[in-house]
Specification:
The structure holds 2 protein chains of 2 kinds. Chain A is α+β, with helices and mostly antiparallel strands. Chain A has 12 helices and 18 strands. In chain A, the strands form 4 sheets. Chain A has a 7-stranded antiparallel beta sheet, with helices on one face. In chain A, strands 3, 4, 7, 8, 9 and 10 form a 6-stranded mixed beta sheet that branches. Chain A has a 3-stranded mixed beta sheet with strand order 1-2-5. The two termini of chain A are 35 Å apart. Chain B is globular. In chain B, 53% of the residues are buried. The chains are: A alpha+beta, B alpha/beta.
Chain lengths: 357, 513
């Protein structure tokens, strides 16, 4: 266990936005909350998951809802604290630590906000290793762990407990309905995990990974080196394409932001075209009409100059971006993993072949 | 229709008289510290050059005065802030992401009240009118002169902000009130930041606008006065003084609009080469393409409608060394006419290189005759390459596009550039920004979420709202045209939610609004 500095959380925000692969929502507002908490004297402790006792109880937290609503109803640490307290009351047990549901995007910082008020440490890890849109797209779901109970807190005096669910898909449906009812934004505490479950089924050390990724970008910027190359070097990723956004088409279907973006090549890629399909996160990329990369490989679209991640909601005509692939957590690449998060889970009739094979 | 356009820049105040599509007269005078006397002088010079300027239909002024006030932290008023939305958004109060020095300068009482709306228009909780009234009474006691009010999701439902304004009008009628839904889009913190900035600039804006009106009256010109906005449109000075934040980026916008007008091109790239910097932007439908990302003003995050510009440290006054070759970003600025070699000074500038290379005839070219020809040619090539790279970065179309060149340093732009179909030089290029002010139009905009409507119907509805807003702002309805339609389906929101943004513009209605 060690204290986390505010500078590390600033780096986490940069790295987590990159691991969001276009989704997960910008971590900016969560970061603002942490700046205020640290200014008031808070220091959050980070815990190595291997230090968890087998019977320790870990709260898996996330903010749920539409990123756009989150731009008006701003994330508040007291709401995520209430979701965790509610779960403790329901279980009649105290948590040992909190952990992120998804390290990609704003949910990377939610456990820090909760931990600051609860006085608990944050476990270094998550259960996606990136961002995904739905409840069943986690390593815990892939490992068939129970999906209930779930607590959901609103800023008003509304609280929902989903006591049981038939399946992960049902849990997604029930919790999503409650979330929409309270204004399409809510803080949730997912099914609690034992220390043993986290150690065996979690995706470990992703918090520090995101911090290192952010630090690499910051160091490259300070040294006037290429931040995109820094991302690729530290993650052993691949530069797939550098170009300019030529067209973006978005449409809402079944509660997702779906769409495609076409990039026109620049520099070494001049004369080539790259097409991206997204479903909140980037899901498939085609180079000159041939499939080049698919989920669960991380498809990251970065600002070519600053190295900042570009979200599927902020992608726009004329931006100069680089598409990079970063390796996914091994659990996502297993046959069972691909059932949950492979191209077919997003409606693309494609076989998965990792760009890293 | 005759119009006078004035651009108050950092170095020069330019004025032009336009008769229909024709530039009748153009003058340049130095900008003064008080701004107003420079305008008085420019108007006097313009009237001397063209007596017809006394009888014009409208006068348009573009100024960067208010941006400079924020950047330089001067002339700002201490304000009160009201946020309506509790219990939501409680942990991030107004001013939360402001630079400390600016916040300490302007932050008065901060009040957070229950109220606000959901994305679908439901109230979050009922509005705390009693709390608003109590706060208003405290403001009156404390002598607060300006209040900023921001409510959660007010762009969708402004009723909480309007109720707050009504209560403030009853309890402290002399206090100026800025409401966030009039200024910004979805994104509470950024919209609130703009509202706070506006509130702390109101006093300065009122004084400045009135001084402009007085200067105009003193000049003998009888015409309505308009101030130009970030998006290339205008507001009557009496209205614009309530929205100083809308003029933050009017300078570069005016020069790009002027370039469009003078070149008769609606879709083109524009390069504006000044004394110190070069701005490259793109024109679409005669208006600058706007930046989509967060824009900081004086360190404050905003979502302003700003032209999407690439700025380079290259201009006519840029310092140059030939061996080893270096160009800018430092510049002699307004001291060009005393410090550069061709004007008898000792500093080698880009202008001197241009004269040595025979690109322009200015000052005394014998003073640069000693410069070695090959080194001069290399410097000219490097300058051309810098412009070429910038143009390529701004370009979004695949094919070659025309490039319009304006500004006093236009001679630095080569006649042929990769990816450019033609380099277009225009008459009056040195006063393109004042021309841009003179031709400004009136706009109306809407940015709203529509539910359970087919896409076409949602866009049609948005277009009608935008058109009504433009007419209210002074546009002639029969000249309106849509310049921007953007729709964004909203992830996770049920019922086919679509965020639609539409902007229309039109000519100023004869006889004013």
């Amino acid at each position: 266990m060690r204290p986390v500095s505010l500078a590390e959380i600033e780096s986490l925000a940069i790295g987590a936005w990159i691991l969001g692969t276009g989704g997960g929502g910008s971590p900016y507002l969560a970061l603002l909350n942490m700046r205020r908490l640290y200014r008031a004297g808070t220091v959050v402790q980070l815990m190595d998951p291997m230090d968890l006792a087998d019977d320790a109880l870990v709260a898996i937290v996330s903010n749920m809802g539409a990123p756009l609503v989150g731009q008006e109803r701003l994330t508040d640490p007291r709401t995520i604290e209430r979701a965790v307290r509610m779960m403790e009351e329901y279980l009649g047990r105290r948590f040992t630590a909190v952990m992120s549901l998804e390290i990609g995007g704003g949910n990377s910082i939610q456990p820090f906000m909760a931990a600051a008020l609860l006085g608990l440490p944050v476990v270094d890890g998550d259960c996606m290793g990136r961002a995904f849109p739905e409840a069943q797209m986690t390593s815990f779901a892939i490992h068939d762990l129970p999906m209930y109970p779930l607590t959901l807190a609103d800023v008003r005096d509304n609280a929902v407990i989903v006591a049981r669910a038939e399946s992960w898909k049902w849990m997604e449906r029930l919790s999503r309905t409650a979330c929409v009812a309270v204004g399409s934004i809510a803080a949730t505490c997912k099914a609690p995990r034992t220390g043993k479950e986290v150690k065996e089924c979690g995706i470990l050390s992703t918090t520090t990974k995101a911090m290192r990724l952010g630090q690499a970008v910051q160091a490259a910027r300070r040294a006037h080196r290429d931040p995109v190359q820094a991302v690729i070097d530290i993650e052993r990723g691949l530069r797939l394409f550098t170009g300019k956004v030529q067209d973006v088409a978005r449409r809402a279907t079944e509660g997702f932001l779906r769409g495609t973006a076409t990039l026109e090549g620049l520099d070494a890629d001049r004369g080539h075209a790259f097409r991206l399909a997204f479903q909140n996160e980037f899901a498939v990329g085609w180079l000159d009409g041939q499939v080049r990369v698919t989920t669960p490989d991380l498809i990251c679209v970065l600002d070519t100059v600053s190295g900042d991640a570009v979200g599927t909601e902020t992608l726009r005509y004329g931006q100069r971006v680089t598409v990079a692939a970063l390796p996914a957590a091994p659990i996502l690449l297993t046959p069972k993993g691909l059932e949950h998060v492979g191209p077919r889970a997003f409606g693309y009739d494609l076989d998965f072949t990792s760009v890293f094979r | 229709m005759k119009r006078v356009g004035i651009d108050v820049g950092g170095t020069n105040t330019d004025a032009v008289l336009l008769d229909g599509e024709r530039v009748v007269a153009a003058v340049k005078t130095p900008t003064t510290a008080d701004v107003t006397s420079g305008i008085t002088r420019a108007l006097a010079d313009l009237l001397a050059a063209a007596p017809a300027a006394a009888r014009v239909d409208a006068v348009m002024i573009g100024t960067t005065h208010f941006t400079n006030a924020v950047v330089q932290r001067r002339g700002l008023t201490r304000i009160a802030a009201v946020r309506i939305g509790l219990p939501a958004s409680a942990s991030l109060p107004p001013f939360v992401d402001w630079p400390d020095d600016l916040a300490e300068l302007v932050r008065g009482e901060v009040v957070m009240l229950e109220g606000g709306h959901e994305y679908d228009g439901r109230p979050i909780v009922p509005f705390d009118a009693a709390g608003m009234r109590a706060a208003a009474r405290r403001f009156r006691e404390a002598g607060v002169t300006s209040v900023a009010v921001a409510s959660v999701f007010s762009p969708l439902d402004p009723s909480c902000e309007e109720q707050a304004a009504a209560i403030l009008a009853e309890e402290c009628p002399d206090t100026a009130v800025t409401l966030s839904h009039r200024l910004g889009r979805i994104g509470l913190l950024e919209r609130e930041n703009v509202t706070l900035l506006n509130a702390c600039l109101l006093d300065l804006a009122r004084k400045t606008a009135r001084a402009f009106i007085d200067a105009l009256r003193a000049s003998g010109i009888v015409a309505p006065l308009y101030l130009t906005q970030n998006d290339g449109t205008v507001m009557l000075a009496e209205v614009a003084e309530q929205y100083p934040v809308y003029s933050f980026a009017s300078g570069p916008t005016n020069s790009m609009r002027g370039a469009a007008f003078l070149s008769r091109l609606a879709d083109a790239l524009v390069v504006d080469v000044g004394g110190t910097t070069t701005d490259v932007g793109a024109l679409r439908h005669g208006f600058p393409r706007e930046a989509n990302n967060v824009v900081e003003v004086g360190g404050v995050r905003t979502l302003f409608r700003m032209p999407d510009l690439l700025s380079l440290g290259l201009g006519g006054g840029s310092l140059v060394t030939l061996d080893p070759l270096s160009i800018g970003p430092l510049s002699v600025g307004y001291r060009l006419t005393t410090e550069s070699r061709v004007f008898g000074g000792t500093t080698l500038t880009a202008t001197d290189v241009g004269v040595a290379a025979g690109l322009l005839d200015l000052g005394d070219r014998h003073r640069v005759a000693d410069l070695p020809g090959p080194l001069v040619r290399r410097a000219v090539q490097r300058i051309g390459a810098i412009v070429e790279e910038a143009v390529d970065r701004v370009k979004t179309e695949a094919g070659d596009v025309p490039l319009v060149v304006v500004g006093g340093g236009a001679f630095l732009v080569p006649e042929r550039l990769a990816g450019v179909s033609s380099v277009v030089g225009v008459e009056h290029q040195a006063v393109a920004n004042a021309v841009g002010a003179a031709i400004a139009q009136v706009s109306g905009e809407v940015d709203q979420i529509f539910q359970a409507l087919p896409r076409e119907e949602a866009i049609a509805r948005a277009s009608r709202i935008a058109a009504d807003r433009a007419v209210t702002a002074g546009a002639a309805r029969d000249t309106l045209r849509t310049v921007e339609v953007e729709d964004l389906p909203l992830a996770y929101l049920p019922g086919n939610s679509l965020r639609v943004r539409v902007r229309v513009v039109g000519e100023i209605a004869a006889g004013g609004p």
